[in-house]
Amino acid sequence: MLVVTTENIAGYNIDKVIGHTFGVVVRSRGLGGNITASVRSLFGGEIKEYTEMIEDARKVAIDRMIQNAHAMGANAIVMMRFDSGEIGQTMSEIVAYGTAVVAEKI
Question: Which domains does the chain show, CATH number per domain?
Answer without folding.
Answer: 2-105 (3.30.110.70)
